[in-house]
């Protein structure tokens, strides 16, 4: 059975990637992920801005991040105790030394110089690729949608000019003309598009006048919007596509592949069940393929994608109309 795929120009044995987050913080866990068969690992994001000790605590929740989830995880990697740039680069070197699978850094920059400098440092530290975790807080009333998109494209072009390793762009799901924007990133040289950033839910404590930030692990219901995004791009961009968000079972991976994904990133399911979940999901994929007489994931990739439809806009419109009946 052939599960191989190509993501960011790298031939992988299957599409199961450990996504950006705390899983890469702990060298022991990184080795367990490799043993369980993870095809690639993405480290948590390096944030450009200077981070104070207090913010570090808030960000990585040094005490125990699993306590902060609504649902307590059974599995808890040891978080990195500091995530300044030097510690991050040193950690990246250690992870690279510990495993043979490709390791990606993730970068969340602020300034044009920051994106470039840190991308270069990540490459020098041995990253096999970089995920650009571009975050735009949509609160600036002076910036139009076109300005925001232009900024993303400029970041991609600048980083591509700087490094030779492949870069992926992790996108928020909030772009109005999503397919058009993705094509701009593709033309700018992005090697991969990661769909999508997952926003943690917020609430308001109306007694204490406080914003409440809960950290909740995902479930498969969050896959739907990613399938839609991947299907919109499948066979229409040169960049490879990864789905991040709501991938929990072998069947989720089958759906992601049919929508056009080259890779699926796992975070919540690994935090919930531990690294060995990779092995289980791989077995689930193989069992499903055997039952349904598929011999290769490549054969099913994108067969539910918009790229195979003559008039995607009319198709979407019909589906929208029917969904309201
Ligand atoms: C505790 C935690 C930390 C995370 N840290 C990062 C991060 O540093 N950078 C990033 O791009 N995504 C981060 N993510 C988001 C994940 O990479 C992923 O996009 C999201 O959790 C959806 O995937 P899932 O449904 O498999 O959890 C984090 C997620 C969790 C749960």
Quick overview:
It is built from 12 helices and 12 strands. It has helices at residues 27-36, 53-60, 85-98, 112-124, 145-162, 178-187, 223-233, 250-259, 268-273, 277-291, 297-300, 312-323; strands spanning 5-7, 10-12, 16-18, 40-47, 103-108, 129-133, 167-171, 192-195, 202-205, 210-213, 240-244, 263-266.
Provide an overview of this structure.
- This protein has 325 residues and is of the alpha/beta class.
- Helices cover 40% and strands 17% of the residues.
- It has 12 helices and 12 strands.
- The strands form 3 sheets. The chain has an 8-stranded parallel barrel, surrounded by 8 helices. The protein has a two-stranded antiparallel sheet with strand order 1-2.
- α7 (223-233) packs parallel to α8 (250-259).
- Flavin mononucleotide binds at residues 19-22, 44-45, 65, 106, 133, 170, 198, 218, 222, 244-247, 266-269.
Search tags:
globular, binds flavin mononucleotide, 8-stranded parallel β-barrel, 325 residues, two-stranded antiparallel sheet
Distance between the termini: 41 Å
Element-level helix/strand string: EEEHEHHEHEHEHEEEHEHEHHHH
Q: Tell me the major beta sheet.
A: 8 strands, parallel, barrel
Rg, Å, rounded: 19 Å
Number of helices: 12
Bulk shape: globular
Q: What ligands can be seen in this structure?
A: flavin mononucleotide
Give the DSSP E fraction (strand runs of 2 or more residues).
Answer: 15-25%
């Amino acid at each position: 059975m052939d599960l191989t795929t190509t993501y960011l120009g790298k031939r992988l044995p299957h599409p199961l990637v450990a996504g950006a987050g705390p899983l890469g913080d702990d060298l022991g866990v990184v080795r367990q992920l490799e043993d369980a068969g993870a095809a690639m690992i993405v480290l948590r994001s390096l944030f450009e801005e200077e981070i104070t000790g207090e913010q570090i605590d808030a960000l990585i929740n040094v005490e125990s991040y699993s306590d902060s989830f609504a649902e307590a995880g059974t599995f808890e990697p040891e978080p990195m105790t500091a995530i300044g740039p030097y510690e991050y680069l040193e950690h990246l070197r250690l992870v690279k030394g510990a495993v043979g699978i490709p390791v990606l850094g993730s970068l969340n920059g602020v300034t044009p110089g920051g994106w470039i400098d840190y991308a270069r440092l990540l490459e020098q530290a041995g990253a096999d690729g970089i995920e650009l975790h571009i975050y735009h807080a949509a609160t600036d009333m002076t910036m139009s949608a076109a300005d925001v998109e232009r900024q993303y494209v400029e970041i991609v072009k600048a980083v591509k000019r700087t490094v030779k390793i492949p870069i992926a762009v992790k996108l928020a799901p909030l772009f109005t003309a999503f397919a058009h924007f993705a094509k701009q990133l593709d033309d700018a040289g992005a090697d991969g598009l990661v769909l999508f950033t997952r926003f943690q839910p917020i609430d308001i404590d109306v007694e204490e006048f406080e914003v409440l930030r809960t950290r909740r692990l995902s479930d498969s219901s969050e896959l739907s919007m990613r399938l839609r995004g991947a299907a919109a791009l499948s066979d229409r961009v040169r960049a490879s596509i990864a789905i991040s968000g709501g991938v929990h079972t072998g069947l989720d991976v089958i759906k992601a592949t049919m929508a056009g994904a080259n890779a699926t990133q796992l975070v919540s399911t690994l935090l919930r069940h531990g690294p060995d979940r990779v092995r289980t999901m791989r077995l689930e994929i193989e069992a499903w393929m055997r039952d349904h007489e598929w011999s290769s994931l490549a054969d099913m990739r994108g067969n539910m994608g918009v790229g195979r439809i003559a008039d995607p806009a009319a198709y979407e419109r019909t589906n929208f109309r029917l969904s309201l009946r």
